[in-house]
Amino acid sequence: MNSAYPIAVIPGDGIGPEVVAAELKVLEATGVPFEFTTYPAGDTCEAETGRALPEETLQAALASKAVIFGAAGNTAADVILRLRVELGAFANVRPTRAFPGVACLFPQTDLVIVRENSECLYAGIENTIVPGVVTATRVITERASYRIARYAFQYARDNRRSKVTTVHKANVLRKSDGLFLRCCRQVADEFSDLAFEEGLVDSVAMRMVLSPEDFDVIVTTNLFGDILSDLAAGLVGGLGLCPSANLGDHHALFEPVHGTAPRIAGKGLANPAAAIMCGAMLLRYLGRIEAADSVDKALVRCIEKGRTTYDLGGGLSTMEMAEHVVREMQRSS
Ligand code: ATP
Predict the structure, then answer these.
(1) Burial level of 50, CB count in 10 A (0-12/13-18/19+)?
(2) Residue 4 has what DSSP assignment?
(3) CA triplet 242, 115, 212: central angle to 5 degrees?
(4) Any catalytic annotation for residue 177?
(5) What is the rounded CA–CA span in Å between residue 64 and residue 95?
(6) CA nearest ligand 1 atom 18, residue
């Protein structure tokens, strides 16, 4: 049976629609049958309809096989944070690797950050105790900690990675990160084929800058994962090269790590590489490994040859770069 995968496409704001159009162009060229349907969300949608995430868009995301997302601006919390919650997407997976042809300090960098997506300080529980005193509650639960640890170890095993590093601050946050660390240690015992390492977030941040090649899969809580994954993006040449997947038991949403980049929006300048890599991650999620490999390899060849947008030193527009990726795919098929 070869029925088309129903995919909800939410391009959003800024450069979102441009990079998503490039991603769809590449996905269509793989020959994998997709049925893409576009839905509104984000700042423009809110301005036009009064809702940043219309009910129809949410229901379509829930009913689809997967969601392709671009970027949302000021309404990001109402759109992407809500989508992650509604889709039960508890794992945020952010692969970061260096590309031949892109200037970077550590060409050996090839790591994956698995970030817990549902709790920590991002639970959004803030209170004004008295005027001038505000608290933010950091929520860490055993259930979510086991779940993300298991996900990270299984991901490492499935993707032939050899080591998992858990990143925490349990020497200070003794109860919350103490619990997270205990869960990771227990799960590590179930995966004796993988090396396991523990690191304090401050020391890991330094080590990532000095020797990122020491890291393979990193599993961590929401806030630390957010910060470390942008740091990782900086190591390999910037946000235009970093894809991410939000994965749960029943749903998946793929989005570039970058945001709306309003200064370059609408000019055809946005680098589509992160979005195209999101497309490859979607193909892997669907079990279309050959097609995913073909997209990844074609993108690497394109970047190697300097067929890139301005941020990587090339002169191509967003769509021209996607067309080059398609040509590379066809050349090697
Ligand atoms: P937002 O408020 O939506 O997060 P932002 O511009 O503050 O938008 P990003 O979109 O993450 O944050 O981008 C930060 C900068 O990185 C941009 O100004 C742009 O120069 C660069 N950038 C991000 N994504 C890309 C891309 N795909 N191609 C080229 N440059 C990019």
Answers:
(1) exposed
(2) P
(3) 60
(4) no
(5) 24
(6) 261
| Backbone conformation region of residue 50, classed left if phi is above 0, alpha if psi is from -120 to 50, else beta | left
Non-local (6+) Cβ contacts of 48 within 8 A are: 40
Domains of the chain: 1-90+243-333 (3.40.718.10), 105-236 (3.40.718.10)
Q: In the numeric block, which tokens belong to residue 251?
A: 């749903």
Closest CA to 28 of 70, 82, 68, 61: 68
Which one is predicted more confidently, 102 or 206? 206
- Within 6 Å (CB) of ligand 1, which residues are found? 14-15, 19, 71, 73, 239-240, 258-264, 270-271, 274, 311
Q: Which two tokens stand for residue 275?
A: 């979005």
Half-sphere exposure of 175 (CA within 13 A, CB side): 5
Tokens of 238: 């910037």
Percent helix, strand and coil across the chain, each rounded to 5?
45, 20, 35
Pocket test for ligand 1, best of 43, 78, 226, 258 (most atoms within 8 A of CB): 258
Q: Which amino acid is at 198?
A: E
Residues 26-44: pLDDT tens digits? 999 999 999 999 999 999 9
pLDDT at 1 over 70: no
